[in-house]
Design brief:
The protein has 67 residues and is an all-alpha fold. Helix content is 60%, strand content 0%.
Length: 67
């Protein structure tokens, strides 16, 4: 299965694409900005799940320096 994401500027364009998908018997839904961010973060986490990670203390030290 493949996924296509189309970012539209207004509700009427979104409705047009949803109606078209329905007529073609595809599943379609509208995602909120928060859902799009969650998908992006999940994608990044999955890409990097096998990378060597820093210990918690090392990570906290780096974050303290950024402040």
């Amino acid at each position: 299965m493949s996924t296509i994401i189309i970012d539209v500027d207004n509700k009427s364009s979104a409705k047009l694409f949803l109606d078209l998908a329905k007529k073609m018997h595809f599943k379609a839904k509208v995602l909120t900005d928060e859902q799009k961010e969650d998908l992006a973060l999940l994608s990044i986490m999955e890409e990097r799940k096998n990378e060597v990670s820093l210990p918690v203390e090392g990570t906290l030290e780096i974050l303290r320096k950024i402040k």
